[in-house]
Design a protein that fits this description.
The chain is an alpha+beta fold. It folds into two domains: 170 residues, Thiolase/Chalcone synthase (Peroxisomal Thiolase, Chain A, domain 1); 153 residues, Peroxisomal Thiolase, Chain A, domain 1. The protein contains twelve helices and 15 strands. The strands form five sheets. A five-stranded mixed sheet has the order 1-7-6-4-5, sandwiched between helices. Helix 3 packs across helix 4. It binds coenzyme A. The site of coenzyme A has 19 residues, from helix 2, helix 6 and helix 8.
Length: 352
């Protein structure tokens, strides 16, 4: 069989209209804009309105991605939704999304892996494409974290935001897509990011509710140490699998959790911070949505191009890590840069 690559032909993001600034948070908990910016780099986050759900945000992002790919929802062979904040514990939000998109009878499933979920989903989609099973796959990363954070806990509520991002991956014989990946898990650190009473281990009751154990709790220092430990090593493994080095990479797209973590990763890789796509100041940590939303923003702003070689790298609850070398579209014939400035993405590139 001819080798099949997974080209990203469509991409789309959705962020809710409502913006919550650090100054707004000063009214809710004992914090300050200066503290949040200095410790995290976050200036604001988007928060879903009362009518919005994980499914509606996902569908908005997915419609944009399908439109870019010039694909109807009925053309899809598979929908994978990376999220841990679906509308219900059951049914899986992927089926609601499939129905709302009009993707009649298309298989759909949720991949629940916190902040690494989108990279796990991307890698999973690639396997279906390269195995020749499916041709058109919709991959969504979506989180409605504002309904899972404790708005009285300053340790967590300042960190997160709501958003959805979507990619359409299509089979092609032209070299592009995922050139290498790495995934890993260390459940010995599972207690460091946990919503203790949101599952079957500790069903919600009056006591767990009063103790607010249904909200996300986090040991920030441990997560910070873990993140700075794994980001460099997982990146090296993805690069090795791709047969590349950091010199071959145009831009690093890290999970957007904390600017200080990204800066630590830059130091560990011996790279200037300018080589990293940074969007955490605008959206805060949107977990599984953070990487696709950052990529959509970077394409819109011209900071990255469709034929750039991207190193995507993430860490999160589990604890888990993941990375991937991704080139969304085949290499273009025209020069990558003109006068040292990256050219912005244009529609013509999609079909180039
Ligand atoms: C959460 C995080 C920003 C805290 O920064 P830090 O420098 O580690 O801060 P510390 O935990 O040392 O806390 C320092 C003090 O600030 C306080 N503090 C915590 N949140 C605060 C806030 N929003 N405003 C003001 N003070 C705050 C703490 O209570 C602590 O006070 P104490 O010393 O009196 O107990 C940081 O640990 C972090 O980003 N960790 C990774 C989290 C993450 O990325 N999670 C998502 C993973 S996908």
């Amino acid at each position: 069989m001819e080798k099949r690559y997974g080209r990203i032909t469509g991409w789309g993001a959705y962020v809710p209209e409502k913006v919550l600034t650090n100054h707004d948070l000063e009214q809710l908990v004992d914090t300050s804009h200066e503290w949040i910016v200095q410790r995290t780099g976050i200036h604001q986050r988007h928060i879903a309105g009362p009518e919005e759900t994980n499914a509606t945000m996902s569908v908005a992002a997915a419609r944009r991605a399908l439109q870019k790919a010039n694909l109807a929802a009925t053309d899809l062979d598979l929908i994978i939704v990376a999220t841990t904040t679906g509308d219900f514990i059951t049914p899986a939000v992927s089926s609601q999304i499939q129905h709302m998109l009009g993707a009649t009878n298309v298989p759909a499933f949720v991949l629940a892996n916190g902040c690494t979920g989108f990279l796990y989903a991307l890698t999973t989609a690639q396997q279906f494409i390269s195995g020749g099973v499916y041709r058109n796959i919709l991959i969504i990363g979506s989180e409605l974290l504002s309904r899972y954070v404790d708005w009285t806990d300053r340790n967590t509520c300042v960190l997160f935001g709501d958003a959805a991002g979507a990619f359409v991956m299509q089979a092609t014989s032209e070299p592009c897509g995922l050139f290498g990946f790495d995934m890993g898990s260390d459940g010995s650190g599972s207690q460091h990011i946990i919503a203790p009473a949101m599952g079957s281990a500790e069903p919600v009751n009056a006591t767990t509710f009063a103790e607010r154990r249904h909200f996300i709790r986090m040991n920030g220092r441990e997560v910070f140490k873990f993140a700075t430990r794994v980001l460099g090593s997982t990146s090296q493994r993805s690069l090795a699998q791709a047969g590349m080095t950091l010199d071959d990479i145009d831009c690093i797209v890290p999970h957007q959790a904390n600017l200080r973590i990204i800066e630590a990763a830059a130091r560990a890789m011996n790279l200037p911070i300018e080589r990293f796509l940074v969007k955490v100041h605008k959206y805060a940590n949107t977990s599984a949505a953070s990487i696709p939303v950052a990529i959509c923003d970077g394409l819109d702003s011209g900071e990255i191009r469709l034929d750039d070689r991207l190193l995507l790298v993430s860490f999160g609850s589990g604890l888990t890590w993941a990375s991937a070398v991704l080139q969304m579209a085949p290499t273009l014939q025209k020069p990558r840069y003109s006068n040292g400035v990256a050219e912005p993405a244009t529609a013509e590139w999609v079909t180039a």
